Amino acid sequence: MPDLISQALATDGLGWLVLTMTVAGIVRGFTGFGTGMIFAPIGFLFLEVTDVVLLLAITGFASTAALLPKAVRDGDIKEVSKLGIAAIITVPFGIWLISLFTPDAIRWLACFIAGGLVVALLLGWRYRGPITTPRLFGIGGAGGIFGGLTGLTGPAVILFYLANGSRAAVVRANTILFLATLDVALAANLFAKDLIRAEIVGLALVLSVPYFLTSLIGQRLFRPDYEQIYRLAAYGIIAASVVIGLPLWD
């Protein structure tokens, strides 16, 4: 264990990674989402694609430990279970897709997905159809594919929930529960495919400390009456991360 931590502390860009994860924890705490979209564009500057996916999955456990109890009380377990089952099925396909793309192509895709989500929501996209089981499976399946390929586990379900007018507390709880399910699926699949590097596990443990603490801070900051402010703040932070992480600046 000490060797893993010492290797993690020697990671190139560690300061940026810690800062990014700290901000992501606050956003995750008060909105229930945003970690992958904030961290992945920056993480790809210093780490391999599979390392970023693994790191997000492991650190996700820290945030889940902080946020899960309240999410279980507030969320719709039946609805989230349908999203989660579909995501679990499609995660292996997303991980397999990594081998078909160059790292830069995946970086562009991650930035496009995260940036596209922000633009769609700011433009007032609204889903007005019924929440049917096939649609839930489709949304969850898309989350599994994108999560396995880029580490961005949330955009599909976030776009659906934030755009369909659901109450802020329910949106936050369901998103936390779904992302927790997907974190377990990602970690299990990466382990099964022998894609886990010990030094990344050490780095994940290091980053989990500020992530856990700031997730608690973000949760304390959450007030349903200020839903619009939370969303706009999250959009701005995600957009900034996307711009900084664009391959254009290499």
From TrEMBL:
Its main location: membrane. It is found in: Cell membrane. Pfam families: TauE. The keyword Membrane applies. The keyword Flavoprotein does not apply. It is a multi-pass membrane protein. The chain crosses the membrane at residues 14-39, 45-68, 80-99, 105-125, 137-163, 169-188, 200-217, 229-249. The lineage of its organism: Bacteria, Pseudomonadati, Pseudomonadota, Alphaproteobacteria, Rhodobacterales. Belongs to the 4-toluene sulfonate uptake permease (TSUP) (TC 2.A.102) family. This is Probable membrane transporter protein. Keywords: Cell membrane, Membrane, Transmembrane, Transmembrane helix, Transport. It comes from Cognatishimia coralii. InterPro entries: TM_pro_TauE-like, TSUP. Coiled coil: none annotated.
